[in-house]
Amino acid sequence: MDNRTWINDETRRRSLEHVAAHTLDVAVVGGGITGAGVALDAASRGLGVALVEGGDFASGTSGYSSKLIHGGLRYLAKGDFAVAWESAVERRRLIERIAPHLVRPLGFVIPVTRGAPAWESGAEGFGAVLYDVMRRLTGTDGTVLPRPQLLSRQAVAALVPALDAQALRRGILYWDGQAVDDCRLVLGVLRTAAGLGAHVLRDVRAAALTDTTVDAVDVRTGAPLQLRAKVVVNATGVWAAGFEPELTVTPSRGTHLVVRAERLGNPHAAHTVAVPGHFGRYVFVLPQPGGLVYIGLTDEEDHGADGHHPAVPEHDVGFLLDIVNTTLAVPLARDDVVGAFAGLRPLAAAAHGEGPDGTADISRRHLVRDVPGTPVTVVGGKLTTYRRMAQDAVDAVVGRLGIFAPCRTRDLPLAGAASVRELADVAAPARLVAKYGTEAADVLALSRVDPLLAAPLFDGTEITGAELLFAVRAEGAASVEDLLERRTRLSFVPADAERARGRAAEILALAGTFGTGTAEAAG
Question: To pair with 360 at 20 to 30 A between CA atoms, which of 56, 204, 278, 421?
Answer without folding.
Answer: 56
